[in-house]
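Each letter names a residue; structure tokens follow underneath. Both lines appear below:
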Amino acid sequence: GRACAGRCGRHRDAALSVRRPWAGLRRYAEIVYTLAQRDFQGRFRGNWLGLLGIVVVPLLFLLAYTFVFSTLMPVKIRPDADREDYAFFFFSGLIGWTLFADTAARAPRLFAGHAHFVRKALFPVSALPAAATLVAFYNALIWLAVFVVVRFAREGSVPLSAIAAPGILVVLALLTSGIALALAACGALARDLAELIGPLLTVALFASPVIYPAERLAGVAPWLVFCNPLAAPLEALHATLFDGHWPSLVGLGTALAWCAVAMAIGVWAHRRVQPVLGDLL
């Protein structure tokens, strides 16, 4: 049974793409959307705050950062900045980082945690990492909305360049989806990857331009910026949300190039694991 399911599953995506490519793509998108909606709604269903709780969490984070970095540990991102500005700088990068980290932390356990889907011959298991990324994207949009509302309430305006932030999050979501697909495939082979992902994400946080600007990181270790696929989209979020600058074409091109690389690696890893996935679980 499992072996048969694995053999059938190996050819399911190819059969869809050859016979009816657009119908297969539409069905795949519907599966991803349905899984994401179920996961997203399940996070607040049964909680007494309901959907409001999803808004309260980023709001509390932003208020806490503002208090800590303006009062307890005053930090200035640049000499002419206000003390409260660092909280907005940090939070603007954290919006993108949370999208990536939430998905990456879940990815190694996705296939094992949804074994009932994996063993279905006609179910495209690559939809699981894509759905997890979509849920994180929903949350990132909420965090973005909280950022815009709080900054407008404090300063009376928001940079016009902030309208580019959702597009940057889309690029970051595509990059995250490719990485998540690779992590899910590797997690099926090596179960201990799920235990290592937490410490690895902590290291990645300090190696990414979230807490400090990309130029400071490049001044100390330029190779970290060059080799880090998250550097370009996170720097673009800082530029659009905090500095009021439009993202550079070079930065967007770099981010899109990393998206292509991540997707290629994710698809390759998934195809190598997919034939034996049913037996591994």
User: Anything to note?
Assistant: The CA atoms of residues 12 and 122 lie 6 Å apart. The chain has a mean pLDDT of 84. DSSP finds 14 helices and no strands in the chain. The first helix runs from residue 2 to 19.
